[in-house]
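task queued by scheduler; priority normal; single chain, no ligands, no partner chains; default sampling; output format set to structure tokens
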Amino acid sequence: MIVPEIISGNKHSDDRGSLIYNNSFNAALVKRIYFIENRNISFVRGWQGHKIEQRWFSAVSGEFEISLIKIDNWQTPSKLLPQLKFLLDDQQFSVLHIPGGYITSIKALSDCSKLMVMSDYLLNEIEDEYRFEIDYFK
């Protein structure tokens, strides 16, 4: 079973400046890229996810708290499912891999934060989007 994981990036600085990189992330499956900017730091975008589609998140600017829930039943999921929490920031090019089967909530932790999202399906290539109210899960 594939589980969510952080693919760690890094940063190198010297007298020329800085290089932020991720030599472990393989982008071969990525078909689509978009960016998310929440309207402010009190807004939480969620819950949304995919049974099949997998995604990769990376903070381009600022920092984010990403919460994940593995769904047990896509029509009526248990309201008490455990949440996994991950922090992403723009200080190193770390990538959070989210396999199919998970929903997310996304909270910016600093103003002007921007999250890059990569997907292994093109827009409307499959019907695989699920949304739940932000207060559905306890």
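post-processing summary
- The chain is about 0% helix and 50% strand.
- The first strand starts at residue 5 and ends at 7.
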